[in-house]
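Dock D-glutamic acid; give full complex structure.
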Amino acid sequence: MAKFLQMPTQTGKIGVFDSGVGGLTVLREIMEHLPAESLLYFGDTARVPYGNRSQSELLRFVREIITWMQGQGVKMVVMACNTSSALALEIVRAEFDLPILGIILPGARAAAKAGRRIGVISTVATAQSNAYKQAILEASPTAEVWQVGCPNFVPLIEQNRIDDPYTRAVATDYLKPLMVANIDTLVYGCTHYPHLSPLMDKILPSSIRLINPAKSLVSAMAQELDVLGLRNNRVKPEIDFYVSGDPDKFAEVSGQLMGFTPKVKPVSLALLEGLAIA
Ligand code: DGL
């Protein structure tokens, strides 16, 4: 099923996707640490948030996106989305003849190295999947893990309400059980949440180590590109941005969150839905 449409080449783009602006926190790490790579970013903004979707819905979205990316000739796909990684990664990996990387395993391993009492904040779907807990305990069987689903964060971040006092109140509430548990390490188990780091720095005691799984994901990408002989070191990199919702809104919020305003192109939902694998 869904084999390579064309052979991957070193100069091919790496496809990176998320439900919205969350994956930009991963894109930023890739741009910093793999600066020669060309990238194709897709934000599924017509269907954000992903965090309260069922597994079958998410699987459908992820299959559509990877099929579309394959048609664009990407050499690798990166799920810059914990929810997709938790609920769909293992299944779609077996379906596509293309390297597909998720964010949970690299994040869990980094957390297991960093601490013993580990809090994970994420979408409700990621928390309910127990994907982080299982992966952390596999790496460090004596660690203790607390997972908190934070459904209000993604809509607030998509509207760039990081500085809103309401967001601070919501964050304080979500973090309360983790403070009571006396965690030493906190994992951003959703790629949207590193956008909250100015707020987190104000709320959290400085003794708590913050883990952004994107950093370890980028190391895993570099390794995989080397193993496959797909590392790009020949051409000037390009970055293309696509969304399924409103391109102007995405460009505006990206500008506010990231400090650069990308040129964003639309991909219609009708086109994506037409790519669904039965
Ligand atoms: N940023 C994604 C994640 O890491 C999806 C969040 C959402 O759309 O609810 O889980």
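Observed: The pocket of D-glutamic acid is lined by residues 18-19, 22, 48-51, 81-83, 123, 126, 154, 190-192 (CB under 6 Å).
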